[in-house]
């Protein structure tokens, strides 16, 4: 890729990186994220032998407290929407994954700057998300991070 432009169709560099939206830039850089479970641009995928082994990786991909808070908000919103849809209006089921994954993926692309583990391991990621939600709800997530040998990063939301 030439430095002057985005691609070989722009040899004079008329199209600049600044002209693209932030979402486009984030999505186009997916292959560049460090420590990701799945690389869209390449063929890198990690294999795990157990859910516990995946859990350690999952926690490492949620190293920033703000990422975990976005996940918590997404999971809580999804649970509330799911209950609402069961009690009042089935059409709200559509918003359950949109809200849950939307907030979680936002945190990965723009806060943590990595690729969601959901792309490579959707079922295990969902299970680990609920596990992280439960640990955060009970105030035990920081202890779990320390148990796994990861120190929580102190930062503001």
From TrEMBL:
Keywords, alphabetical: Membrane, Transmembrane, Transmembrane helix
InterPro entries cross-referenced by the UniProt entry: Mpo1-like (IPR009305)
Report which superkingdom the organism of origin falls in. Answer: Eukaryota
Annotated TM spans: 70-103, 123-141
Entry annotated with the keyword Membrane: yes
Q: Pfam families, per this entry?
A: Mpo1-like (PF06127)
Q: What is this protein called?
A: DUF962 domain-containing protein
Organism annotation: Hibiscus sabdariffa
């Amino acid at each position: 890729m030439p430095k002057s432009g985005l691609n070989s169709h722009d040899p004079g560099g008329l199209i600049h990186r600044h002209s693209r939206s932030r979402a486009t830039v984030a999505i186009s850089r997916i292959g560049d994220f460090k420590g990701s479970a799945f690389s869209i641009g390449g063929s890198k995928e990690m294999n795990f032998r157990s859910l516990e082994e995946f859990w350690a990786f999952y926690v490492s991909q949620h190293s920033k407290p703000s990422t975990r808070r976005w996940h918590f908000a997404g999971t809580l919103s999804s649970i509330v929407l799911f209950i609402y849809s069961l009690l009042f209006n089935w059409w709200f089921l559509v918003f359950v994954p949109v809200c849950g994954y939307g907030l979680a993926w936002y945190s990965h692309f723009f806060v943590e700057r990595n690729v969601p583990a959901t792309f490579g391991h959707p079922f295990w990621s969902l299970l680990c998300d609920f596990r992280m939600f439960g640990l955060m709800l009970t105030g035990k997530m920081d202890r779990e991070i320390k148990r796994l040998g990861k120190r929580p990063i102190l930062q503001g939301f």
